[in-house]
Amino acid sequence: MVLDPHRWLELRRFRGLYESGAMSLREIAKETGLNRRTVTKYLSGEVPVAPPKRAANGQPRQRVVDGVAPLIDAMLRAEILLKGAVIHERLVAEYGFTGTYQRVKIYLQEARPRIAEELGISPGELAGLHRRFEVVPGAQAQVDWGDEGKILAHVGIPKVYSFHMTLSYSRDPFCCFTTSQDLGTFFECHRQAFAHFGGVPMSIVYDRTKTVVRRHVAPGEAVPLHPEAVAFAGHYDFDVDVLAAYRPQGKGRVERQVGIVRDHVLAGRAFSSIEEMNAASAWVPLRRAKVHGTHGEVIGLRAVRDHMALRPLPTTPYVVAQRHLRYVGKDCLVAFEANLYSVPARRVRPRQLVEIRATKSQVTLHSTTPDHQGETLLAAHPRAVGRGARVVDDKHWDGLPTGAGRRVTAGGDLPAPRRSDGSGPEAGLMTLLNRVAATQVEVGRRPLSVYDELTGTRPFTTHRTPKESS
Question: Which of 50, 102, 203, 413 to pair with 83, CA 20 to 30 A apart?
């Protein structure tokens, strides 16, 4: 029996699953609808691995991919795990290949094992594997974030995050919970971790988070670091180690720690505040008392050697401030992260541009130009938690109208008029009567010539009108 080429291609897809033991011949026969003996014949090596070719006029049929087969083989010799989509993309762009990606993919199923055998390696042995590394005490720590979701949504906090730092040699853990992943919060958590461990490791491993990396670059290029990350690392004297893209295995020790915290601290519990969640870190002594499955020692005992090798903390901490420019509203409030903070009304004007410097626990507002004393600080507030909060110092509104003089009436007794001399309502009434009397006084009317004669000046006109002569 000669298998139809289309059925053969369909059966060929199961060769890898059969060779790896993921599927049996019975399961493949059921999936393809073929007889089990046919499946055994074509997958057990009893027939050539190449698909049957149709013959026309005695000549073998030429496939489209055969014209670029040497190019594909050369690419595989340079990189055995090169993806089929990348190979097809390069063939189209550089060599004008007109075939489909599916044709390249089918060819790779045959070519990749053959080239790997020539090179003495097996792609199956390399896929999904990575090199294990070991470090000396105090040499390295790994950092990662965990997204804990809406665990405090019932108290108005939309999102909660967990910050993790793990010492690579001993697997000694540190964890704290925050409501933000911004720059100030990120490095404030570092300071807490250093205080917890009693020192600073020689290097810290990060993924390509925006608080460490300024922008993403192509593989093989130098990663530009965030200026604040460089300054912070220089102050605490550690090296920043950024992983390659899509390589979570490079910090698997802290990745494992994220899952442990969720299972042993958060699962099945309810919390009402961040402080309550941080207080639940009593699990750390329990974790440190366990024997680690990899290094086979008690984590806490091995951590003693780790802590002794850490670099000492500097005498003064480095406070990372997140900086932003914002406008002052007509209500003397400045918006930052969906919250409002007040500034002194006597020192600002509407639409004035001010600088916000935010740390994990504090927000300070500064003028962009110093005053006559060289000061720029306008106000300092505790940082709001969540969104929609107003943090206001009532003294900042001194001098603004309060609306206390506004009054209304629904009828009845009229309010007393204003007192000009403090003598009571009678004085106001007399003032009105005097005004009425003043309007009734008769005023004499004289021609202008009379005033000219009295003053001895020349009259404006020498001829009198008939009205004046009378």
Answer: 50
Give dist(CA 90, CA 75) in Å, integer. 10
10 Å CB burial of residue 178 (0-12, 13-18, 19+) is: buried
Contact between residue 261 and residue 175 where contact means Cβ atoms under 8 Å apart: yes
Residues 75 and 136 sit within 8 Å (Cβ to Cβ) = no
Instruction: Give the helix/strand (H/E) hosting 466.
Output: helix 466-469
Two tokens at 38? 């046919």
Lookup result for tokens 């969640």? 277
CB-CB contact of 348 with 354 (8 Å): yes
Predicted TM-score (pTM) of the model is 0.52
Q: Comparing 282-291, 339-348, 423-432, 456-465, which segment has the lowest mean pLDDT? A: 456-465
Q: What angle do CA 321, 322, 324 make, to 5 degrees?
A: 130
Provide the residue type at 97 as one letter: F
In angstroms, rounded to a whole number, what is the distance separating the alpha carbons of residues 29 and 247?
A: 38
- Give the total residue count for the chain: 470
Structure confidence by residue, pLDDT tens digits, 138-194: 999 999 999 998 889 888 888 999 999 999 999 999 999 998 888 888 999 999 999
3-class SS of residue 145:
strand
Residues 206 and 240 sit within 8 Å (Cβ to Cβ): yes
Which of 201, 340, 325 shows the shortest CA–CA distance to 190?
Answer: 201
Give dist(CA 439, CA 57) in Å, integer.
130
Residues with Cβ within 8 Å of residue 139, at least 6 apart in sequence: 168, 169, 201, 202, 203, 309
Question: Which residue type does 406 have?
Answer: R
CB 259 within 8 A of CB 162: no
Residue entry with tokens 């009436």: 409
Residue keyed to tokens 């007889």: 35
Which residues are CB-contacts of 47 (< 8 A; sequence separation ≥ 6)? Answer: 41
